[in-house]
């Protein structure tokens, strides 16, 4: 049973003006993946001022880590808490005082809030070192938005020295109102892979199709056939998506082109389904093309794996969040077809990744992630800090 902690809430209320100021500074100064040099410097300076130990920079180019050692007698676990730092190549349309100062780049997914929350979490845990044994590893990660910064940090030893036992992360969620939290045990977010199919036909005059092998017709048949993978080859209790998002061919209305290209995304939750759909897209494309006299070149590009939470850790997060936010505001939530590279950490260590409601309809803060008018209700960050601090303390306590 989690007990409400009014003292902790008071501490968080006290630091929230600083957390919001940090978030707005980061929002004004966004940087793209693996280019977060100013952000990393800002984070490292903040950690140094707090007294965080063993601050390391330059991991995966711009990643930062730091350690908080508990002062309570005993040997506790090492718990990693992660925040991503990168922005997106989007021109911001918000008319706010903290609008991005970098045209064409903005924090349109909430990573500025994640970084600010983790700095706030660090401040609280530094003040509460007497309450735990073990070590908290703070990890500020570059390039979540397609760059796979988590994997690079892992490859460069971020889960060792000291050896990490548990991993936790959180993400603001504009699909949920402020005060809500979702944390699902097991698969929570999909694996996201990409593919391309280049169809080689035989071009010619649009008035003489009988002398050609039309790659557009072949591509149209392939697009239709690919939809049978999920509809007829995947167990209905499983979830998967095959989407062709780009179909490029030709430039003139009276010319049949030589080639056409299809590009798309594949989403899945289990390794078996992931392997199946990745393989079958290529097989079906090749078979359809052969039947129509064309050939294909198929390229499959695996992306982030499915985000799979440890069931016990997810239950713990929900239990704590129920106390912090109210039981009626906490749920497992739906499966998300979006992808997240925190999945790489969860492949290596048990832990949980949860979604923190950050929308406020009354204030017009409802625009979704990756939209040029994305913005959050900053008051949501207080709940995220409290849930994460209590989670870390409970895991350290071993109860």
Keywords:
399 residues; 2 domains; Alpha-Beta Plaits; four-stranded antiparallel β-sheet; 16 strands; alpha/beta; Aminopeptidase; eight-stranded mixed β-sheet; elongated
What does this structure look like?
By secondary structure, the chain is of the alpha/beta class. The protein folds into two domains: 6-189 and 306-397, Zn peptidases (Aminopeptidase, 3-Layer(aba) Sandwich), CATH 3.40.630; 191-301, 2-Layer Sandwich (Alpha-Beta Plaits). The chain is built from nine helices and 16 strands. Strands 1-2-4-3-5-16-6-15 form an eight-stranded mixed beta sheet, with helices on both faces. Helix 3 (111-127) links the parallel strand 3 and strand 4. Helix 1 (6-28) packs across helix 9 and helix 7 packs across helix 9. The protein is elongated, with a radius of gyration of 24 Å. 48% of the residues are buried. The model has no long low-confidence stretch (mean pLDDT 97).
Q: CATH H level of the largest domain: which superfamily?
A: Zn peptidases
How much helix is in the residues?
25-40%
Q: Helix- and strand-based class?
A: alpha/beta
**Segments where pLDDT lies below 50 for 5+ residues?**
none
Task: Give the count of structural domains.
Answer: 2
- Using the 3D structure, state the CATH architecture of the largest domain: 3-Layer(aba) Sandwich
Task: Report strand %.
Answer: 25-35%
Please compute the radius of gyration using only Cα atoms: 24 Å
Instruction: Write down the overall mean pLDDT.
Output: 97
Please provide the ordered H/E string of secondary-structure elements. Answer: HHEEEHEHEEEEEHEEEHEEHEHEH
